[in-house]
Amino acid sequence: MAFALRKATTYLVKRMHLRPVRKVQFTFDPYMKNVTSIRDVASTLHKPEILETNQGTILKFDIKSDRTEPRIDVHFNDGEKLVFKTGNLSQLEILDYLYEYVQEKDPRKNESPELVTKSAKAGTKGGKGKKKR
After folding, report:
1. What are phi and psi of 42, to 5 degrees?
2. Domain 2-122 CATH assignment equals 3.40.30.10
3. Inter-residue contact 65 to 31 (CB < 8 Å)
4. What segment(s) does the record annotate as region Disordered (predicted)?
């Protein structure tokens, strides 16, 4: 079972991006027992390959010692806010829900890939190719 969880988490991490996200705020009390998932998600989102997808995203940590329930506030570029109360959620569940919302709001979602035809490729070779007589 642990292998399946690691594989699913790795799958999500490889596809995760922060393009539509403006700010992610992590609020938790490190002395509580149920903060492992929020700490794991924070370390996952701090990976350079995820942070490079949107360098304008702010990751903010609000660490308290007043028995505050762990939560993640995700602020999107369109003004919408998503709140995860992570006390009873696993890392995989949080990443899965976050991935779904981020994919839904992705500004590149409707862009089609640029098609390059053979004639366009031949024209970009810098004059190399068949000579016309």
Report:
1. -60, -45
2. yes
3. yes
4. 106-133
